[in-house]
Design brief:
This protein is an alpha/beta fold. It has helices at residues 4-7, 32-48, 72-77, 84-87, 94-105, 118-125, 139-148, 162-169, 190-205, 220-231, 268-283, and strands at residues 56-59, 66-68, 114-116, 131-135, 155-158, 177-181, 210-217, 238-244, 256-262, 290-297. The structure holds S-adenosylmethionine.
Length: 299
């Protein structure tokens, strides 16, 4: 998702059978929502890897891991132009520059052709003794992901439902790490209920894990019950970062997105406080563009 179309439930339909997944991230790779999500992901992983102990990165909705911006899908929407495309030449503060440099590392000849997904960005940020668990339900996406990590013994690709995998595989043996939950929102508002269930069950299994949950913003009315739920527990500390590229006065388009972070690493709020204004300035599509960083619980 992440385009207006997808949020409205009219994702780019290449597979029309009922019950089949229609979402393809290749249409949206590198868009403003990816830039927001991936810049925060790297800040989280950098904070977690500041300690020596090994960790586990758990990606519940991993996608194919890497995207070619000259592919038909990415060319068709051109969404990356209003995402990473707007950040390449900026003079950004260090936390955002870190993300732009990570994208640059995937394009060593200087031309932006490859956009890394969350698994590849995480793999680059992690150390030799860390581990990645990557879940993806679509067979062809999972096969591509598996091929990408064929030579990386740290990575374990599971062609299965990411929420079920959380129940089956958490806590990780490392007892330290981050779960990224980044679904396509084909269930639309129902996805927030899935988040609540997944986070409650995960807390029971692994209360000390860090969890980052991406969500779209059409209107805050839809998100408020999810925030209220997390404000009431079970995690002691919950931080929320949000970016609006347009005012949230139309339910018909993707106006922005947010990341809810349960058990955020120490001092991540300071890094995000520096990064978010730069993201807003770089990605604004309207003078009403805005950002918000606030604790739902704790601090
Ligand atoms: C937004 S994309 C993921 C993008 C990726 N996290 C990134 O940042 O590069 C969502 C992915 O989740 C996959 N998916 C959908 N439902 C899933 C499920 N229940 N479990 C695991 N993967 C799922 C979709 O096929 C799609 O590739």
């Amino acid at each position: 998702m992440r385009t207006d179309d997808a949020i409205l439930g009219v994702t780019h339909r290449r597979l029309q059978s009922p019950g089949r997944m229609n979402y393809r991230h290749s249409f949206h790779a590198g868009n403003f929502a990816d830039a927001f999500k991936h810049a925060i992901l790297l800040a989280l992983l950098d904070a977690l890897t500041a300690k020596d102990k090994p960790l586990c990165y758990f990606d519940t909705h991993a996608g194919r891991g890497s995207y070619h911006l000259d592919d038909t899908e990415a060319q068709k929407t051109g969404e990356w132009r209003d995402g990473i495309g707007r950040l390449l030449d900026g003079h950004d503060p260090p936390p955002l520059r870190r993300y732009v440099d990570a994208i640059g590392a995937c394009n060593p000849d200087g031309a932006l052709r490859v956009y890394p997904g969350s698994p590849l960005l995480a793999a680059q940020a992690l150390r030799t003794n860390d581990r990645l668990v990557l879940c993806e339900t679509q067979d062809d996406e999972a096969a591509t992901l598996r091929a990408l990590f064929r030579d990386d013994a740290r990575a374990h690709v599971h062609a299965r439902d990411g929420y079920a995998a959380m129940n089956a595989l958490l806590p990780p043996s490392e007892r330290r790490g981050l779960v990224l939950i980044d679904p396509p929102f084909e269930a639309q508002e129902g996805e927030f209920t899935a988040f609540e269930t997944a986070l409650t069950q995960a807390h029971a299994r692994w209360p000390n894990g860090a969890y980052a949950v991406w969500y779209p913003i059409k209107s805050h009315r839809v998100i408020a019950p999810f925030h209220r739920h997390l404000a009431a527990g079970p995690f002691d500390k919950v931080l929320v970062a949000e970016l609006l590229v347009q005012p949230d006065d139309s339910p018909l388009r993707l106006n922005g997105c947010g990341m809810l972070i349960a058990n955020p690493p120490w001092k991540i709020d300071a890094a995000l406080a520096t990064m978010l204004p730069a993201l807003r300035n770089g990605l604004a599509q309207s003078p009403a563009a805005a950002h918000r960083l606030h604790w739902l619980r704790g601090e």
